[in-house]
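Following the same procedure, backbone shapes were mapped to integers, yielding the entry below.
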Amino acid sequence: MNKSEQLKSLFVHGIEQGHLLAGDRMPSLRKVCQDHQVSMTTAQRAYGELERLGLIEACPRSGFRVLPQRRNKDPLAQRLNAAERAQGIRIEHLTMALPMPWGSPFVNPALLDPSLMNRALAAILQDYPDRLMDMPVQGLEELRRTLALHYLSQGTLLDGDELLITCGGMEALSLAIRAALRDSGRNNIAAITPAFPAVLDQLGHLDTALHVLPWQHDGERLTAMVEALFANERPAALLLMANYHHPTGRCLDMATKEALVRLAHRYQVALIEDDTYRELYFSNQPPAPLKRFDTEGWVMHCSSFSKSLAPGHRVGWIAGGRFSDTLASLKLCSSLGTPMPSQMALARVLASGRHEEVLASLRIELRARCVAMQERVLECFPEGSRVSEPEGGYFLWVELPDSIDSSALLPAAMQQGIHFAPSRLFHASSPAPANALRLNASFYDRLRHRTGMALLGELLESGLRQGQRFRQRSVLTPGTP
């Protein structure tokens, strides 16, 4: 391949991969010659070939620009193929471009008010140059102090140096898991499912045994199961969401939380508390975290404002208790520190108190959308479906009749512009339960989406009929796989 062909292939690749978009200016011929050490004749010949292929066009006195490209498949078809390849299992990040992205794990950005954080960022920029070399491993002192006061106002006491600021809630959970494994010397972790899919992915990548307990809203049953697990298996940690459990949105009662913390103390097993949705409560005040009952430091409390006040800023935190030193060491090896501008802005917003009104409005809107979506689900879904009654957050968990496989129905739903999260995402066992799905109520519009919910209900009805026919054939034909 000569130099002009190499140069042509380089730009074809850039255009096909979307690095150069329709309307973008191409590098000047003179710059191409300098960057690639080729002659002007070689550069002109390469651009001529790109013109012949219909990829670029010459503009009078202004060089060349990229032309719009024909696509063999539209974006929706590409998403459908991706969903089919994944068999409905790893499709969480394909949701935002659909008209009804009810499978998205994120809160609807249209409901958020970014102005507080935007103004705070603008205000702190004048002080930022003085903090360029200041990146403490544990995080910005002003933010840690403000967060401690925030918890104090809600009735939870944190020890002085146990707060560690992280790069979002996911880093907090990852550090907590690693700290529990390292300090315990044990190689097994327990989790309550259904659970947040990204956490299950993290656990799946570890070379460790995973014990799974089913979620129980009944506190006595859950406590009994946890005690049996601690006594028989002694895991390094139990990972759970006591508040607004993902995906059901339910909370454990105070007595159960206290009982679980007592078990952690007795058996010396860490509790990794994921409290990501704690600010999205529907009652008059937030529920108590497990951390409130922790007098011996066995609870690692992880949280963030990523789902409420500051999405995209990637600021989370962990109150590590007896694991604080190990967490700081792991944080130093993992990311050195958390980016300073977002920490400074969030500290400023929390200190001002103006976030309370913003969060209160968000909570009201999310509760209204959850109620509206819940009512419509009960109207449209197959008889026998059960929908959760969340106490906070923005998810609905829908349990369907046994013969429905929600993963199998996802591609057809996506053809209608509808996305949901099938239940297999939320379980680590194999085969995972298939007859449930998670819906994101923050994207539900009572007026615009009535027809969409009816369409989804019809798809589930068809899945129910197919499942029933398959079961009948299996009964009539013994040995059917």
User: Anything to note?
Assistant: Residues 282 and 364 are 7 Å apart (CA to CA). Residues 72-88 have pLDDT under 50 and may be disordered. The first helix runs from residue 3 to 16.
